[in-house]
Amino acid sequence: MYEPATSQTLSVHNLAIWRGERCLCRGLSFQLSAGEALQVQGQNGAGKTTLIRVLTGLGRADEGEVRWRGESLRRTGAEYRACLAYLGHSNGVKLGLSPRENLAAFCALLALPDSGGVDDVKGVLERVGLSAQADLPCGMLSMGQRRRTALARLLLARARLWFLDEPLASLDVSGVALLTEMLKAHLAGGGIAVFATHQLLDLGPFPVKAVALGLAA
Amino acid sequence: MRVTALIERDLRLAYRRRGELVTPVIFFVIVTALFPLALSPEPALLRSLAPGVIWVAALLAGLIGQDSLFKSDYEDGSLELMLLSPIPLEWMVLLRVFTHWLVTGLPLVILSSLMALLLNYPTNAMDVLVMGLLLGTPVLSFLGAVGAGLTVGLRRGGMLLPILVLPLSVPVLIFGAAAAGRAALAEPAAAPLYFLGAMLVLALTLAPFAIAGGLRVSLES
Questions:
Q1: pTM for this predicted structure
Q2: Do A213 and A166 fall within a single domain?
Q3: Which residues of B touch A107 (CB under 8 A)?
Q4: Strand order in the sheet with A63-68
Q5: In this model, does residue A81 exceed pLDDT 90?
Q6: A-B C-beta contacts closer than 8 Å
Q7: Domain range holding A59?
Q8: Are the beta carbons of A58 and B17 separated by less than 8 Å?
Q9: Which entry of A73, A177, A200, B209 is 20 to 30 Å from B93 by CA?
Q10: CA A69, CA A188: separation in Å to the nearest integer?
Q11: Which residue of A79, A81, A96 is in closest CB contact with B84?
């Protein structure tokens, strides 16, 4: 599914993030190699979202650095962004467009000529169970169906790194099962996943590391 | 790069909420029509006021909806995806401003000739007025986008936006109204038009960086 996994590691060195006067984490270091997952734990407000945003490069850390393939994020820029897929609190779904149109626009955003195929979008919509709603405006869909549209984005991106912030939000039981399956397939293909959830995800044979926030204060 | 797909998405979204797009156009028509009512219907007076009235009305009409340029993307998370895309943000921002101008600025330019007729503006000078607006309104769109990018994260950004943007719009207003005014008097109007052209080139090359910078700052917190 991906190129050989040599040196495909995401490493975090001595990271410190401050929110005003409050320290969210200090001296945080970990390393993730191909096929590994990391669960970010912590209470509401502990800084899970902030940490994930720093890992994607959307936010900035006060100290320390994040490295991908041994290179600091500050230097890799677009190259790093091409390797990652991000699912945030908000779905990144345009309510005025249908799931199919949303995904087509997302393909354009990825600038990948081969992933812009109509068949690709169709297959992915089928996988997340939205075939019947593919042409309805997302504004008419339920929150869970919008979340599924966002999940479909992850499948389209074919990114090696997944950053999921509360991916289970508004998903039903079959949605959780779908996400678990997606994560397993992703890890089996040599991907790396970082997710923040309150529930435990059973990823079977794949090791899930954990980082707990909120203890440093 | 699939530029057309991104423009197509923005145009499609604009079409789905076309009701909002009509607002600035109606505002422009009403404001221009108010002047003869408030001042006097005297043709000579209106003729001398026409360039200024058209330009101020176009400037104010352009401000409507300017704060929503990136607002919905900020709120639904699309902006994060744009920042995480391998395509440079500056480039995407340029496309966005272009499509925004296409659906809001261009209708104003087209309508302006009609409103100018209403104000007794001489028809043989119409080409200069329209040319000036064609060069000037995109600059106004870019300036507005800089403000919109900076204020996208603020709850009351919509109120701050005119205060930020209007002072910056002054040069465009001066040269635009000057060109139309001189043409009405049958004087050469090439110089102010060239200035507008220079401003457009500057805005086209520099504004995308400023807009992208503002968006990055807005999203970092």
A1: 0.88
A2: yes
A3: 2, 5
A4: A22-32, A10-19, A63-68, A71-72
A5: no
A6: 82
A7: 1-83+159-217
A8: no
A9: A73
A10: 19
A11: A81
